[in-house]
């Protein structure tokens, strides 16, 4: 029963650490709780989208990844989806945040 909760906590922690690194490395963004929250929300959306797209393209008709290369590719796609989704969410948040203020 607690395994999904552990997965959620692990995902939030990893996404926030990765988001902190991306936000610190970006020259115009400043490290704030709002930017990290935007990154985590966007990272989850990016992971969901990238996993659905990858399994739709690579998996067999039973939605199974049958080779080690397919599983490693899936994990790499999850990492790319995390970075791209989170970065896009922070960018959109910065864009609309500057328009409103």
Structure in words:
- The chain has 101 residues and is mainly α.
- Helices cover 81% and strands 0% of the residues.
- It has three helices and no strands.
- It has helices at residues 3-25, 33-58, 68-100.
- Helix 2 (33-58) packs antiparallel against helix 3.
- The radius of gyration is 15 Å and the shape is elongated.
- The termini are far apart.
- 20% of the residues are buried.
- The mean pLDDT is 92.
**Low-pLDDT regions:** none
Order of helices and strands: HHH
Instruction: Please give the alpha-carbon distance between the first and last residues.
Output: 44 Å
Characterize the biggest β-sheet. none
Summed over residues and divided by their number, the pLDDT gives a mean of 92
Approximate helicity band: over 70%
Q: What spatial form do the alpha-carbon principal axes imply?
A: elongated
Strand content: under 5%
**Strands, total number:** 0
Using only C-alpha atoms, the radius of gyration works out to: 15 Å
